[in-house]
Amino acid sequence: MVLLMGSMLIFLFSFISKRKHLLATLLSLEGLMLMIFGVLFWVSSMVSFSNFVLIFLTLTACEGALGLSLLVSLVRTHGGDNFNSLNALQC
Amino acid sequence: MWLSPSLLLMIISIVTSICLVISSPSLFISWIGLELNTLAFLPLLLSKKSKLASEASIKYFLTQTLASVLILVGGLWFLAPWGGLATLTLLLGLSIKLGAAPFHSWVLSIAEASGWVPLFALLTIQKINPLLMLWMFCHLSMPFFYVVVLSSLIMGGLAGLTQTSVRSILTFSSINHVGWLMTALSFSLSVGAYYFLIYLTTLLCSILIFHMFNVSHINQLPLLSFKPSNQMLLFFALLSLGGLPPFLGFLPKWMILQLTVSYSLLLVGGVMISMSLVVLFFYLRLMFSAFMMGGVNLTTLSSDPLPFSCLLCCSLSITGGYPDYFL
């Protein structure tokens, strides 16, 4: 359990950090969701709700697919998934 | 365009997500509603298919998934020995979803890139789900809630002073309104719902006028039209959004100020009043450039009368619905 929490924090840190490619960010998002899936499964074996884990897994897969389709649209408009090329929007 | 089957599916999904969050028995089911909301809003951002739109959709996706993860982890930590961190993480996730300061920088980027209809949905409809969860789980007695409300009010007011793009001005005014909305929800749901509905009406009025005239920058306002009635309409719509009496936008602000003072939350009340002045100033500055071209003889632009829907909404916002009996 502590291992799962620690890995979750590691993946969270990896998701937040400054990167060169969008694909690495999406990979760490998937890892984060996997760790949360583990924690949810552990917790739901102690408490009695266990149907949510499956729904959570479905939503994680949907989100991963959405992230990848956004990556594809980014590659189509910008020619690559580098974060350096996202310079059209300046705050 | 907005009734094409794919976009209609997305709009129905967003309405379904709101119904899911309203009627959910637990935090996890409302989390499903939040995820559905994010998933369904992204195609609305991408409806223009430009370089800016794909950048904006990536930024929206990354921030919203981070916020969803934080909300879920916060919900899980309620069962853990370190339960005090749970509400903090939950409130952190919900503030990122709302675009409340100090987590507001993503809203500005996305607002610059999108058309008027996705901007309206981003600033109002996407806020319904996180605000509902905020009402269910968080209260003004938490110190972090206080920090978020005060910084939203201050950042929304002061950072809007440096902006010249109309979309940025509306975004910062929305960040300011998020501070008011969070305070309203910590009193009761009906007060928050009342403020939200009136905010939606006044913002719709302003965005309709900007959309009709296709204005995106302060520079374009002198070319608005040479009928003073159109300029006055925009002026009153913006003042209603800012909360000046006797317009509609004043009523919910009055209600919240009265509740704030009666519960002795004087710091929040004081900051609200002073930041309202700052917000009204940058609306006024927007209209100065529109009114300044009075005496110049340019070639006359054709000025079509405004469509009926625009006038209906403006009469609702400016006079509280009284001329609706006559229109």
TrEMBL record, chain A:
Tell me the keywords, alphabetical order: Membrane, Mitochondrion, NAD, Translocase, Transmembrane, Transmembrane helix
Membrane-related topology note? Multi-pass membrane protein
Where does the sequence pass through the membrane?
21-43, 49-75
Q: Which reaction does it catalyse?
A: a ubiquinone + NADH + 5 H(+)(in) = a ubiquinol + NAD(+) + 4 H(+)(out)
| Any one GO molecular function term | NADH dehydrogenase (ubiquinone) activity
Tell where it localizes.
Membrane
Record has NAD as a keyword = yes
Enumerate the InterPro entries for this protein: NUOK/Mnh_C1-like
- Cellular component terms (Gene Ontology): membrane
Q: Which Pfam families match?
A: Oxidored_q2 (PF00420)
Question: Could you say which protein family the record assigns here?
Answer: Belongs to the complex I subunit 4L family.
Its recorded name reads NADH-ubiquinone oxidoreductase chain 4L
In its UniProt entry, the species of origin is given as: Daphnia pulex
Automatic annotation (TrEMBL), chain B:
Lineage, top-rank taxon, reads: Eukaryota
**UniProt-recorded name of the protein:** NADH-ubiquinone oxidoreductase chain 2
Per its record, the protein catalyses: a ubiquinone + NADH + 5 H(+)(in) = a ubiquinol + NAD(+) + 4 H(+)(out)
Please verify whether the record's keywords include Zinc-finger.
Answer: no
Keywords (alphabetical) are: Electron transport, Membrane, Mitochondrion, Mitochondrion inner membrane, NAD, Respiratory chain, Translocase, Transmembrane, Transmembrane helix, Transport, Ubiquinone
Its EC number is 7.1.1.2
Q: Which organism is it from?
A: Daphnia pulex (Water flea)
Role, per record: Core subunit of the mitochondrial membrane respiratory chain NADH dehydrogenase (Complex I) which catalyzes electron transfer from NADH through the respiratory chain, using ubiquinone as an electron acceptor. Essential for the catalytic activity and assembly of complex I.
Q: Which InterPro entries does the record associate with it?
A: Complex_I_Subunit_2 (IPR050175), NADH_UbQ_OxRdtase_chain2 (IPR003917), ND/Mrp_TM (IPR001750)
Q: Name one GO molecular function term.
A: NADH dehydrogenase (ubiquinone) activity
* EC class name: translocase
Pfam families with a match to the protein in the record: Proton_antipo_M (PF00361)
The way it spans or sits in the membrane comes to: Multi-pass membrane protein
